[in-house]
Write a structure and sequence with these properties.
46% helix, 3 helices, 3 strands, 71 residues, 14% strand, three-stranded antiparallel β-sheet, alpha+beta
């Protein structure tokens, strides 16, 4: 297996750098508790994230383009 896994802090940085979307490691931790976050795996005591799972989560969370706030 040669895929890259990101720690929670690295995952938040990945989303910020790749998409310009503000995200903190604390927000990712909250999603672990309440749900709604990206898929993750556990290695020892640490949550780790795949880039593909972060990309899919961002794509799922983004709305369709809008031209008005009244839609």
């Amino acid at each position: 297996m040669s895929e890259r896994f990101y720690t929670r802090a690295e995952a938040a940085e990945y989303v910020r750098n790749q998409y310009g979307i503000p995200l903190s490691k604390n927000t990712l931790q909250k999603f672990v508790t309440v749900g709604g976050g990206p898929a993750y795996r556990v290695f020892g005591r640490n949550a780790v994230y795949r880039g593909a799972d972060l990309d899919a989560w961002v794509a799922h969370k983004l709305s369709a383009p809008r031209h008005s706030s009244s839609n």
